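U., I forgot to send this yesterday:
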Amino acid sequence: GDVIVTGTPGGVGSVRKRFLKPGETIRTQIEGVGTLSNRCVAPSA
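Result:
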């Protein structure tokens, strides 16, 4: 089978000043495969 992985080397996102906020949605699309959507939520108490 096929394995599809995504990621970045450690530390590359640490210089960014903007972080995800609850309610924002991340969408990853691969043509011919489909779209994966993940909504950011606040941690539960």
